[in-house]
Amino acid sequence: MHVHHISESNSILNTFIAEIRDQGIQKDSMRFRRNIERIGEILGYEMSKQLPYAKQAITTPLGTKVMDLLDDKVVVCSILRAGLPLHQGLLNYFDRAENAFISAYRKLKPDGSFDIRVEYFASPSLEEKTLFLADPMLATGQSLVSTYKALLSHGAPKELHVFAVIGSSEGIAYISKHLPENAHLWIATIDDTLNDHGYIIPGLGDAGDLAFGDKL
Prior knowledge:
Blueprint: E1 2-5, H1 13-21, H2 29-48, E2 53-60, E3 63-70, E4 74-80, H3 84-93, E5 98-108, E6 114-122, E7 130-134, E8 137-138, H4 142-151, E9 159-168, H5 169-178, E10 184-191, E11 193-194, E12 200-201, H6 207-212
Parallel strand pairs: 1-10, 4-5, 4-7, 7-9, 8-9, 9-10
Antiparallel strand pairs: 2-3, 5-6, 11-12
Helix pairs in contact: 1-2, 2-3
């Protein structure tokens, strides 16, 4: 897997990452969602440099200009519900993309371990398309792998690009072993540690709850 760690180079991205981590600022759910969306836009822009382009003549009121324009079929898929703001950020730039949505969550066992349950799933055909898989928190990596395997029932994408806001080193190692070798990970920042419950440390907390409110 090719890992693109965007915050390795300083940019305005650092401000958005700091605000989603800050326990005071992140209490403003609208600002939290917008910052995740902004990060999705930045990741999408950086990723767009890898896609194929084709020359196309554009007619202006005063003449014609030949430009290199995106020449690819993209499907953006987010993992509900936390992935929705990141999905929107990608869609702001790839506004002609098709869309897919899937639910994946941890089902706790009595011993404290968990299984990944995939339930709701809506997707167009993925056959020979470029798949963007968006999930803001890449913790253990199990949800992403389970989601990708479920998506294959709708066809084999020609390329896979995973988008995450914060990931753990352990989670990145896990998906590197279980996703296609030529897949790309576009990630804003990386933390080294997972706690005993599989949450990223220092991370930011529960992205879904911060974006949309507590759940039962």
